[in-house]
Amino acid sequence: MKVLIFSAKDFEIPYLEQANRGKHKFVFVKEALSSQTAMKVIGYDAISIFSADEACFNTIEKLRDFGVKYIALRSVGFDNVNIKSATRLDIRVANVPEYSPYAIAEHAAGLLLAVNRKLIESNRRVKHFNFNINNLVGFDLNTKTVGIIGTGKIGAVMTKIMHGFGCHILGYDIKQNVELVTNYNLRYTTLKKLCELADIISIHVPLNRETHQLINEDLISEMKQGVVIINTARGAVINAKDVIEGIKNGKIGALGMDVYENEKGIFFRDHSLNIPDDNLLLALNARPNVLITGHHAFLTDEALTNIAETTIYNLDCWEAGKETENELTKIDNTTQTL
């Protein structure tokens, strides 16, 4: 099968080639999929896209017209793909439903530790041989209350990590995980009550109509003064404007984020010589109590291996005329953001 890999990153190409073992003919391009770049797919049976690619209604129609039959996502999330249009136009879409929840949860824990203990600022000082430790005060995680919004695979790992620190853990999810309640003393509650009680809030939900800008002015107003928020889910789960205001007035004591609601066209690229004209990102980046990483929580050897292997598995199934259990065009996506 001829496959065009959009948004190909140098770090992932060896993993894809290793998993492929020469079975499919790959061509890698750095450009993201969009309605403008869709013409590149002419002559290909399938494409593979990442979270920054855009497969909207117009793009899907162009893919169909240009002969593409399959879209293999190299991600869990599929809010960037119009699944209804793909289904209607008989383009099969599959994702990587899981790779390494440890990668994401451990990154979230790293963000929490770094922003709480001000590790970046401390290291910046030491690099200049400034060993003054004023204004580097953090707090013990032990006995603090951590609210986990979304207790799926990633949220479950984050629960276990925080339990190891001796934290009290609250959870919010539409589906409760009995194991977390039994073994890690997690207590499920309402979202409002979680925000009222939590010293730290870690977000692990998919992006859909219910979670879009979930963390907004109204919910922030319910939070503890000085709350720490960690987001390794999707950028648009947080209303950046409202969060900035919460940081300014002290309601939010610190923010650690691996994702940003307007990251498309910004993240995964070097803009050091051409700073993005994005006032929200500039405002966040200027805050000493905000730590931003560039959507690389998934960037571990184990996760990249799993992503590549599942991507190839989906392509193998399609080439053999089989269904893959990871297919999204066969499920009900009524609550997915399209």
Report on the structure:
By secondary structure, the protein is α/β, with parallel strands linked by helices. It contains twelve helices and twelve strands. The chain has helices at residues 13-20, 57-65, 83-88, 101-116, 119-127, 153-164, 178-184, 191-197, 217-221, 240-248, 279-285, 301-319; strands spanning 2-5, 25-28, 46-49, 70-73, 92-94, 145-149, 168-172, 187-188, 200-203, 227-231, 252-257, 290-292. Strands 8-7-6-9-10-11-12 form a seven-stranded parallel beta sheet, sandwiched between helices. Helix 11 (279-285) links the parallel strand 11 (252-257) and strand 12 (290-292). Helix 1 packs across helix 12 and helix 4 crosses helix 6. The protein is globular and about 60 Å long. Residues 331-338 have low confidence and may be disordered.
